[in-house]
Design goal:
This protein is mostly beta strands. Helix content is 9%, strand content 36%. The relative contact order is 0.16. The model has no long low-confidence stretch (mean pLDDT 96).
Length: 359
């Protein structure tokens, strides 16, 4: 029987269970925003259950269901197919959850659950064409090898994606990350890379693709990744909302991470992205949100990865302040200053706040 996601009491501290999750998973240190491509060891990581023991020598991917010709491939056969390399930014759907009040109980992300890598693999659309999709096919069910229990439901990790989204979206069956074979924690030997989508759609340790004639109603679609206030069905989590992050300036206090800078001019730099449309504007506030100024955007390197931005900040008065930044995409979607709340802490993209002391 499914259990409701729990919300912390007003004064409830981070629990041992949450600390255990935070120790297994990790965010990207924000100073790593300086890299166009995130080094593998700095890329954010979320593992729902265990890293499964998958032998690349015996691994197979089965594609079946509503197809004319089911397909079963081993790793050499998949690697023999035409390949593509895409630079893709991936953000966890729960990024920002720990800042919510009341706090949803789960992996306690702040804003660091993101990374950009160069993924190499076989595009999925030609493989589906090879199988011969039936006219009544509407969705894919993507199954990973990781297995566990979540809120009382025992399951393999599975996600459903509408066939229209798959065929229009540059989905890869990736076997390399930054030019090297996938490491175990990132889904070796093969994972899904779904450009523009939050991380829950990028199924790791992929082993089965079922072409379905009905919408998938499994846990990770129907229950876990929903934007809702209470017990209503809510809306599904899909593409990444616009977000900008700044490389923290100066140097940090060990515990609080407050930044310390000297008076003078500082070159602020950061990254911005959106899964629905290209980022067209980044604004920066150096006075805790009282005023905003446009940053300069770098030239885009691709549709699916973050874009760099820069802003010259003249810190001419001593004291404490906050640096904020916000992105706007081509659809006119702007990051909110205040964090919108939902019960599971999904798809929250409120602006980053960096406390700074000017000395």
């Amino acid at each position: 029987m499914d259990q409701e996601a729990r919300v912390a009491e007003p004064d409830e501290a981070i629990s041992v269970d949450e600390l255990q999750l935070a120790a297994r998973n990790h965010g990207m240190p924000l100073e790593a925003l300086r890299y166009d491509v995130t080094p593998v060891g700095l890329h954010y990581l979320l593992i729902h259950y265990d890293i499964p023991d998958v032998d690349p020598a015996t691994w197979r991917l089965d594609i079946d269901g509503a197809v004319e010709r089911p397909l079963s491939l081993d790793l050499p056969e998949l690697r023999s197919r035409p390949s593509q390399t895409l630079r893709v930014t991936i953000e966890c759907a729960g990024n920002g959850r720990a800042r919510l009040l009341p706090r949803p109980i789960s992996q306690p992300w702040l804003v660091e659950a993101v990374g950009t890598a160069e993924w190499t693999g076989a595009p999925l659309a030609p493989l589906l064409a090879e199988c011969g999709l039936r006219p009544d096919a509407v969705e894919l069910v993507l199954t990973g090898a990781d297995h566990g229990t979540e809120r009382g439901v025992e399951q393999d990790y599975q996600r459903g994606m509408r066939l229209d989204d798959v065929l229009a979206g540059d989905l890869l069956l990736a076997y390399e990350m930054n030019g090297q074979p996938l490491p175990p924690q990132h889904g070796a030997p093969v994972r899904v890379v779904a450009p523009g989508w939050y991380g829950m759609a990028h199924v790791k340790w992929l082993q089965h693709i079922e072409v379905s004639t009905t919408a998938f109603r499994g846990f990770q679609n129907a229950t876990a990744y929903r934007i809702r206030q209470g017990d209503e069905a809510g809306e599904p989590v899909t593409r990444m909302r616009p977000r900008a992050l700044v490389v923290p300036p100066g140097f940090p206090d060990f515990m609080t991470r407050e930044r310390v800078v000297d008076t003078g001019t500082h070159a602020l730099r950061g990254r911005a992205w959106s899964g629905a449309a290209a980022v067209v504007r980044v604004e920066v506030s150096v006075d805790a949100g009282r005023s905003w100024a446009d940053a300069e955007l770098d030239a885009a390197t691709g549709r699916w990865d973050w874009v760099g931005w820069s802003y010259a900040w003249t810190a001419d008065s001593r004291g404490s302040t906050e640096i904020l930044c916000r992105a706007t995409d081509a659809h006119g979607d702007v990051q909110p200053v205040e964090q919108p709340w939902n019960r599971q802490g999904m798809a929250n993209n409120a602006v980053q706040r960096v406390p700074v002391r000017v000395r």
